[in-house]
Specification:
By secondary structure, the protein is mainly α. The protein has 2 domains: 1-103, EF-hand (Recoverin, domain 1); 113-219, Recoverin, domain 1. It has helices spanning 4-18, 24-33, 39-50, 60-69, 76-86, 96-103, 109-122, 132-135, 145-148, 154-163, 177-189, 194-205, 212-217; strands at residues 57-59, 93-95, 129-130, 175-176. Strands 1-2 form a two-stranded antiparallel ribbon. Strands 3-4 form a two-stranded antiparallel sheet. It holds the Pfam family EF-hand_7. This is Calcyphosin-like protein.
């Protein structure tokens, strides 16, 4: 998971870039990430709360309300522009799964592969959903600061991890593949070095040989 230092640096970087950009979509992305690595996941959760009919789509008024309720500051013209960008078929609605995919910070194929590899390792049943039982024996809690100082048990750390993915008032103790990617796209944005990102993922999820690929290719990434 993202470190406090990584989150702090990400917030600072995004706030600085926010003052420079004029692109409405980039403004929205940077505002989300200025909240830390979980920013993209957070706005996804906001739209999930609003999706009463489980249609996975929202109209302009719902989109505008979601932006407001999440606490983002955008002028009316920018909100209209962003909605129009994602309403590609001009139907008056946008698929918020597709919206989130395009809102995620860009990642190279190696980082995407690591994230997908980690999720596949977690998803023991192959049903596209991860539970606390799946996490046991896979997610390495021993380097977590609160485990090291004895404040939290392994069970508490795993529960906290799952809780970070849940929708408020609708906690189900499960992580979907999209939720996992949304979270780690934010973590990725907080880490400039491909080598460090690879080592972090390998250590957290016990991914055999993932970090060695960089060495074999001779990449100078750290």
């Amino acid at each position: 998971m993202a470190t406090e230092r990584g989150n702090r640096e990400l917030k600072q970087k995004c706030k600085a870039n926010l003052a420079k950009t004029t692109d409405p979509v980039e403004k929205l992305r940077l505002q989300c990430l200025s909240r830390g690595a979980s920013g993209i996941k957070g706005i996804g959760r906001q739209f999930k709360i609003m999706d009463d009919d489980q249609s996975r789509s929202i109209d302009f008024n719902e989109f505008k309300k979601g932006i407001h309720d999440f606490g983002l500051v955008m002028d009316a013209d920018d909100v209209k522009t962003v909605f129009a960008v994602f309403d590609k078929d001009k139907s008056g609605t946008i698929d918020f799964d597709e919206f989130l995919v395009n809102l995620r910070p860009p990642m190279n194929s190696n980082r995407k592969n690591l994230i997908n590899q980690a999720f596949r390792k977690l998803d023991k049943s192959g049903d596209g959903v991860v539970t606390i039982e799946d996490l046991k024996g896979v997610y390495n809690c021993k380097k977590h600061p609160k485990y090291m100082n004895g404040e939290w048990t392994e069970e508490q750390i795993l529960r906290k991890f799952l809780d970070s993915f849940d929708t408020p008032n609708e906690a189900d103790g499960k992580i979907t593949n999209d939720e996992f990617i949304n979270y780690y796209s934010g973590v990725s944005a907080s880490i400039d070095s491909d080598c460090y990102f690879s080592l972090m993922m390998t250590s957290a999820w016990n991914l055999d040989g993932a970090a060695d690929k960089y060495k074999k290719r001779g990449d100078r990434v750290c």
